[in-house]
Amino acid sequence: MDHPILFVDDNPVILKTIEVAFANEPHPLLTATGGEAALALVQSHHPHVIVSDLRMEGMDGLTLLHHARQLDPHFIGMIFTAYLDLDSVMQAVSDDAVWRYIAKPWQDSRELVMAVHNAIELFEARAARHHAEEQLARAERLAALGHLVTGIAHQFNNINVGIMGYTQMALADPQLTPETRDHLEHVQVFAKRASEIVKDLSAFSDQSQLWGFARADLTRLTGEVLDRFGKSLAEAGVHLHRELRSTPPVEVNGGLVKQLLANFITNALHATEGRPERTIRIESGSDGGRVFVRVVDNGCGIPAKYLGRIFDPFYTTKGPQAPVGSPQAALPGVGLGLSLCQTIARNHNGEITVTSEEGKGSAFTFWLPTAEPCGPEAKAATRHTPISLTGHGDERR
Ligand SMILES: Nc1ncnc2c1ncn2[C@@H]1O[C@H](COP(=O)(O)OP(=O)(O)OP(=O)(O)O)[C@@H](O)[C@H]1O
Ligand SMILES: [Mg+2]
User: Fold this and answer.
1) Which has more confidence, 228 or 245?
2) Does ligand 1 lie within 6 Å of residue 132's CB atom?
3) Is the N end or the C end of the chain the one with fewer CB atoms within 10 Å?
C-alpha cells in the first residue's frame, strides 16, 4: 500500500535534502514551503504522515497540524524543530495532533527516514484496528438482527400453521357454497406465500450467522490457525506442540477468534526470538463449564511490574522501545495486538488470563462460555455485551 508523506518547511534547501534522503523510498513524497500550500495538499492527497517544521513564516507547524486534522483525522503528525523550541513541542506532543518531534539539525538523515517508517507502521496499525472495530460492530449488528429474525420467523410460522390447518378443515365441509370455497382457496394461496417468506427470513438469519456469531468448535478453529502458522514456525526453528482436546461448542465470530489466536501465537514467536531452544505449546480443552485455548511459550517472559500494562493500547517492548542490540529490537510491534484481543474476548463474553515468569516464558489463555443449548428460544436469549474499545490495560485478568 502507498503511504503518501508530506514534508513542510519554508527552507527549500531542507526540502531538497529530504527529497534526496527519501529518493529510494517507495512512498509518494509531497513537499510544501508553507502552511496554506500544505493544507491544499492534505485536501487533495490525504497524506498518511505529515512532518512539518515548527517555525515558519506565516502559519507555524503546530497550527498547520491542527488545521490539517480538521481536514483529515487519520494522518500521523510530526514536528521537526531546533532544541531551543523543545519546551513548546513537548507540550504539543501530549495533544493528539502531534505524535513526536524530530530534533533539527539531524546528524544523519537515516534517523529521519526511520522516524517516518515508524510513523507509517503506526498508521497501518491504527488502520487495522479501525477495520477490526468496524468488523466487530458489523458482527454485533448482524447477530442482533439474526436473533430478531429467527424469533419473528418462529412466531409467524406458528400462526401460519394455524391458518393453513383451519382453512383445510373448513374446505373439507361439503356444504360450502362455491363462493366461500373460492375465498378459502385464496386464503390457502396467501398462507402458502407467507410460509415461503418465512423460509426466506430463516435463510437470511443463517446468512447473518456467517458474518455474525455462529456455533463453532474452538479446537477446530485453533487447528485452522495452526495450519496457517505451521510453516513459518517450523522455518523459525520453533518446536510446536499441540495438545488439542475435543471441546463443547461455543458461539463465536470465527474470523475474530482466529485473529485473537494469531496475535497470541505471533507474540509467542516474538518472545522466543534469540532463545537457543524455541518451544510453543498450544492447548485446548474445557474446564468448569468454559472452553479454553492456551498458548504457552518458553520465551523472555514478562516482568511482574509490566504485567498490568500489556493490554494498554500502544504498550510495546519491541522495535525502538527495546534495548539496542536485543532480539526484540529487530521485531515489529506497535502494541495494539493484545488490546484488540481483549476487545474481542469481551465481545464474546470471554476473558483472557496471563501467567508469566521473567526469563522462563508465558501462558496466555482465552476462555469462552460454552454455547447455550440449541433451539430458537435459546438462540434468542443469547446476548453479547456491547462493544467497547477503550483500553483495559489497568486490569490484569
Ligand atoms: N508471549 C509473550 N511473551 C512475552 N511478552 C509478551 C508476550 N505477549 C505480549 N508480550 C508483551 O506485551 C506487549 C504488548 O503486546 P501486543 O501484542 O499488544 O503488542 P506488540 O506485540 O508489541 O505489537 P503488535 O501486536 O501491535 O504488533 C509486547 O510488546 C510484549 O512486551
Ligand atoms: Mg502482538
Assistant:
1) 245
2) no
3) N
Band of pLDDT at residue 210, cut at 50, 70 and 90: low
What is the count of structural domains for the chain? Answer: 3
Nearest CA to ligand 1 atom 17: 337
Alpha-carbon distance of 136 to 360, in angstroms, equals 35
Does 92 sit in the ligand 1 pocket, CB within 6 Å?
no
- 164 with 91, same domain: the answer is no
Question: CA–CA distance from 77 to each of 60, 128, 205 (Å)?
Answer: 14, 18, 44
Q: Half-sphere exposure of residue 217, counting CA atoms within 13 Å on the CB side?
A: 8
Total Cβ atoms within 10 A of residue 155: 12
Judgement on whether residues 180 and 238 belong to the same structural domain of the protein: no
Q: pLDDT tens-digit profile of 251-291?
A: 998 888 998 999 999 999 999 999 999 999 999 999 988 99
Q: Which of 159, 191, 211 is the last residue of a domain?
A: 211
What's the CA-to-centroid distance between 264 and ligand 2, angstroms? 7
Q: Is the minimum distance from the CB of 271 to ligand 1 under 6 angstroms?
A: yes
User: Do 151 and 265 belong together in one domain?
Assistant: no
The Cα diameter of the chain in Å comes to 105
Distance, CA 324 to ligand 2 centroid (Å)? 20
For residues 280 and 363, state if they share a domain: yes
The yes-or-no verdict on residue 382 having pLDDT over 80 is no
Shared domain for 54 and 165, answered yes or no, is: no
CB of residue 336 inside a 6 A radius of ligand 1: yes
What is the pTM for the complete model shown? 0.56
